Structure formats: structure tokens, C-alpha cells
TrEMBL record:
Originating species: Methylophaga marina
UniProt subcellular location: Cell membrane
Name listed for the protein in its UniProt record: diguanylate cyclase
Listed CDD domains: GGDEF, PDC1_HK_sensor
Membrane topology classification: Multi-pass membrane protein
InterPro entries with a match to the protein in the record: dCache_1, Diguanylate_Cyclase, GGDEF_dom, Nucleotide_cyclase, Rev_trsase/Diguanyl_cyclase, Sensor-like_sf
Transmembrane segments: 7-31, 286-307
Assigned EC number: 2.7.7.65
Domain GGDEF intervals: 349-477
Domain of life: Bacteria
Keywords recorded for this protein, A-Z: Cell membrane, Membrane, Transmembrane, Transmembrane helix
Enzyme kind, highest EC tier: transferase
Amino acid sequence: MKNRKRLYTLIISIIVLMGFLATSLIGYFVARSSISQRLQQEMLPLTSDNIYSEIQRDLLHPLVISSLMANDVFVFDWVNEGELEPEKMQSYLSQIQEKYNTITAFFVSSKTQNYYHPTGILKKVSEDVEADAWYYKAKNANQPYLINIDRDTAEPNRLSIFVNYRVLDKKGEFIGVIGVGLSLLVVEELIENYQQRYGREIYFIDRQGQVMLQSSKYSKELHIQNKEGLDKVFTRILTTPSSSFSFNTVNGSTIYLNSRLVPEFDWYLIVEQVNDPSTEKVENALILNLMVSFAISLIVLFILHLASRGYQGRLETMATKDKLTGAINRQVFDSFFTQAVARGKRHQEALSLVLIDIDHFKQVNDNHGHQYGDYVLTAVAGIMRQQVREEDVVCRWGGEEFVLMLQDCNQNQAIKLANNIREAIAQHVFEYNGKKRQITVSAGVAEYQQQETMSQLIARADVSLYQAKNNGRNCVR
């Protein structure tokens, strides 16, 4: 019985713990997946969009300036006059640079191929020179302007953003390219701002994957193929206008990455984040949930143990004891008898049985009612329990009959005990609902003999009880 109870408790414990564990883990993985998906599909693209929007906003001002320059009457007239006084164009460009606070201003004539700058004529452009390719792209473009990032002709060590505006005369003929330069510091400050605000790594790469612009905290790898993990997605980044994905590094970190092509620069904007901090919060929540779940499981199991123990006690009482008198019932007496016989053999002890019957009990029921009779049965059982030892067994055998099983007790000792019980009952006044009556009992005693069955022992005690009844009752035989 105990082994089965332990097994059931173990099974219930495993079910409860597995239930809490499954609930916590499912919640954790769902939350983590949701966070990862939101980071890839919403948060990183939003950062990328914000940076791109601010770049476009910062380019708007130099675009307007270059447009005004391309439509300035001075430029038309000066070119039509044959570019006779270069200092006039030099002065014009210098005024533009000072007025609009640009890092440079320029004009390249289609007729003379001269590159005009606030400091004078810097050079003649040529199709054979790679550094002049920007001019010919703008000349042959189907749109009013092109934006490119290139080294400044005046300062070759400086990368700048150039707005190259095509200049057309009144007849629509191409006469040159004019525009201004914008410092890349504007974009670098933008990157630094977002780097500090969100703790994400932001940088630009060119079509070959070379890192062109980065924040001050950018790691030293100059090519994305050299960055741990990025070599696996290198081709995917450079062949799609925009993409979002995540991958794991060798050290177990997860990198979330968003890339998008910035057509004005012909560069890719990369936004990275390593190990989303929200995931760490979810992991902490998982640990807390598991601890709480374990604590709740222990509480539930403790309550279950108390409840099962209480219910088991009740069931055992119902199964082993007579509901009315509280004495052991007849159904389980044989198991007690078997244990007592085994104990007697092991310790060489005597074992006796006393069969007790209430005298004239039918008259009690007929004269005073069954409730009074039930009271008498209960009171008699109580008197018996007071007279016997703790290890002795009081059993209601049926109706008004009781059996006492007395361990380590021979026949003479059993007769003495039976007489004590008989006298105690005879002296007791049974009072119930104002009705008083005295009751007597008769008893038959038998001592266990080797190899005797319970039925045989009961039969001998019954014969003795029959003798007591025939001898006038209220006696022990």
C-alpha cells in the first residue's frame, strides 16, 4: 500500500513538474522567437530607415544649392562669353562656398574640360583618368544630377559627398557639371548618434564589401568577409537591395543584421546588434518562472500529501473499523489474527480469544428502540477498550457480539480480563435520552493451539460462550 502510494506521489510529482517546466519553456521560446522576429523585421529596419531619412534630409540642402547654381544666369553668360575671365568663376564658386558653408564648390566645363575651383583651375578632366569618371557619368546621365562619394580633387586625402548637377543652356545643350561638396562628418556624426542611442554597430560598405564609413567603436576588421560569421552571408548582403537575418558565431553569440542599399552613395548601410538585451530579460524571467514553478510544485505536492494522507487515513478507518462502535470490523480481523499468530510463534507467546455477547440485547432494542441499542453497543465497545492493552484487538464480530484478541496472554489471564470487563459493564449505568438501564454480558474464552485455524479457535470460544449463556448469563466460561 505504501509502495503504491509512493509510486502515485512520484508520478503526480513528475506530471506537475513537467507541466510547469513545459509551460515555462514554451513561454520562453515563444517570447524569444517573437523578440528575435521583431528585432529583425521591425527594430533594425527602422533604425536603417531613420538613418537613411536623415541622410536624405542632409542632402536636400546641397541639392537645392547645386540646382540654383545650375540655373544661374551668370554661369550661362560666362560660358557663352568663352570663359574668358576664369577669376570670375573662381570668385563665384568662392562666394557659394562661403555663403552656404560647403566644403567645396566646383564647375567643370564641357567645352574646355577645365575643373574650376574657388582656388582656381585645378586640372583638365579626361576620360582616360579614373578619378574623372564621375564627370562623364553625370554628363551621360538621364537625370538632372548624380550624387557620389569620392576623393576631393582639391584635397585628395579627404572623402566627400558631391552633388554633381548637369548644366544645360537655353537650347538644352549640355555645357558642364556644377555642384558642391558635403563633408562625410555629417554622416559620421549620424552613425555615432545612433551607435550611442541604441548600442548597435552601424557602418557602410561598398559594392565589394569594403568598410567605407564606421563609428569610433567599430571593430578593426576592414572587410565584412573577415568578420566572424559574416563570411557566410557576405554574398547575400551584396546581391540584394535589403535583407534582414540572424546567425550564430563560434562563441555562441547571436548577431542580428539588417542591410540596405543607399543608392545616393552606392553603398550598403549595415545595422548590427549582438545578443538582444531583451533576450537576456526573457532568460532571467525563465529562471524566475522555473524557481516559482518549482516552489509552487513543492507546495502543491505538500498539500496533496497532506490531503492524500488524510483521505487515506479515512479510507483505512472505513475499511478496518466498524462505523458505529469504532472497533475493528470482521473483514480485516483475519489479517490481524495472522499477524498475531506469527508474532506468537516468533516470540513463543500465548494467544487467547474472548467471544463476548450482550445478554438479552433484543429486549433492549424492543423496549427502548434501536437508537438506544446503538448507544449500548458503542458504550460497551468503549468499556472494552478501556480494559484491554494497546496491542490487544477489539473486534465487532456481528450484531451484539464482540471478539477480543489478546496477545501474550494465556487462558487464565484471558478469563481474568474477561471477568474484569464483565464486571465493569455490569456496574455501568447506560443512560440515553433519559432512559437508564444496566446491561450484562456473557463471555467464552479459548487459547490458541498450535496449527489451529482461526475458524477452529472461534468455534471453541463460541462453545464456551454457549456454556456461559446456559449457565445463567453474566459469566465467563
